[in-house]
Amino acid sequence: MPLIDSAKQVSEVSWEIPTSYKEGMLVPAKIYATKKLLAAMDQGVIEQVTNLACLPGIVRYAYAMADAHWGYGFPIGGVAAFDLETGVISPGGVGFDINCGMRLIRTNLHYSEVKPHVKELVDLIFRLVPAGVGVKGTLRVSESQFEEVMKYGVKWCAENGLAWEDDPAHVEEGGFIKGADPSKVSRQARSRGIEQLGTLGSGNHYLEIQVVDPARFFDKKLSKHFGIVDEDQVVVMVHCGSRGFGHQVGSDYLRVFDGAMKRYGINVRDRELACAPFSSKEGTDYYGAMVCAANMAFTNRQVIVQKVREAFSTVFHRDAEALDMHLIYDVCHNVAKVERHSYDGVNADFLVHRKGATRSFGPGHPDIPAPYRDVGQPVIIGGSMETGSYLLVGTQKAMEETFGSTAHGSGRTMSRTQAKREVRGAELQRKMLEKGIYVKSATIDGLAEEAGMAYKDISEVVETMDLAGISKKVVALRPVGNIKG
């Protein structure tokens, strides 16, 4: 059945699939999309979001954001909240790249100052931040230090000279999620992660020098709260996660959960939705290990940011502080966290899975850093390396409607294999340079995978979430230099 025929339109940009659609659905599914975006979504999205709606303990809705596409078990762009007593936790609902996320760093530089140095900057950052499959970082830590990384994330960085004083406050959860249990992390996962701090990785991960787009500077008053004040101001965006460490944690626990479901009498429509009660030993163990991976990812991005600051300082012969290279914010994409939300007239704790989705807390929330608390949490939406990205802000409506969640990026429209069939990496690199975007990639094939044509229209995704009221546009950012992992 075509996706669009299965969903009832409830607003200009939201659609609902009732529980009658599929046997076993405990809640309806809700999809945020324009008619055009919905028509372009693959059928896998509707199957996955309605499978998600069947999981024990799910509350309100199974959500698919405007960037949703087929993923492992959950759709990427999927959100689901679970009751802590009756609900489950699912590695497929978090994803293999645990705490894949985005960072945005501001500068006080104008594009006219940076333009002559873009190639020099990109080339230097490419040397300082290893990119590609299986690369090792330049930061060496002992096993005991890596345990501290797993437990304390950016807090550990701040205590070891790898962060500025105000960095932790500008990271989701203050840069470390409580509840890490390194004893639940396998030896194999540790061995994969300990040498990967400060590495970009591969796939859709990137590091990008961007410029504020004057034609899409939507809310200048709001942007000042985030330190963006000029129409040609330069910022830097980082997109990466927990590398092989998170992947190994996910793989380890999928095997555990596959067997655990029989013990707890849980049947799922898709084996990739393997899960266990959150309160069970298996659920608690996975949560402790997953948090370790999430904290490693925060640390990974922090080490990268220090290298970016070093590169800018070298090229412009000024201290990074003098360049005002403060962190605007860091958001998680792939994570499950215990959060307090209002649902059914009651304030309670829920386990919120966001897979390829972003937290979007509205004004006044105590978890938002003090300088932003009156306006809401910064939301960073990464686009393709050709089309640019956006800075948005969280809203009260997101708190009321989506457990404080919104989209995370463009969302793919074609597989990496298909993109490589249709695009030649070297030609893409040349065309991007003609457009004023200097790109350096770990591999030419990897570049082809991330061509803009392989993604949805980022502007339509962002506009959809803005119209839905669950995040609000602040400013668009266009790329001028890109390092592709």
Overview of the molecule:
By secondary structure, the protein is α+β, with helices and mostly antiparallel strands. It is built from 16 helices and 19 strands. Strand 12 and strand 13 form a beta hairpin. Helix 6 crosses helix 11, helix 8 packs antiparallel against helix 10 and helix 10 runs antiparallel to helix 11. The model has no long low-confidence stretch (mean pLDDT 94).
Coarse structural class? alpha+beta
Main beta sheet, described? 8 strands, mixed
Helix percent band: 25-40%
First-residue to last-residue Cα separation? 37 Å
The average pLDDT value, as a whole number, equals 94
Anisotropy-based shape: globular
**Count of DSSP H/I helices:** 16
How large is the share of residues in beta strands?
Answer: 15-25%
Number of strands: 19
* Unreliable stretches: none
Radius of gyration (Å): 21 Å
Question: What's the helix and strand layout?
Answer:
Layout (H helix, E strand, L loop, with lengths): L2 H4 L1 E4 L2 E4 L11 E4 L2 H6 L2 H10 L5 E12 L6 E8 L4 E2 L1 H4 L6 E10 H4 L3 H11 L14 H17 L27 H7 L12 E7 L7 H6 L7 E8 L2 H21 L12 E2 L3 H36 L10 E6 L2 E9 L2 E10 L2 E2 L18 E4 L7 E6 L1 H6 L3 E2 L9 H7 L2 H10 L3 E4 L2 H6 L8 H11 L2 E14 L1
Parallel strand pairs: 3-4, 18-19
Antiparallel strand pairs: 1-2, 2-3, 4-5, 5-13, 6-10, 7-9, 7-11, 8-9, 8-19, 12-13, 14-17, 15-16, 16-19
Helix pairs in contact: 6-11, 7-11, 8-10, 10-11
Short description:
This protein has 16 helices and 19 strands.
List keywords for this structure.
alpha+beta; 7-stranded mixed sheet; 485 residues; 16 helices; 24% strand
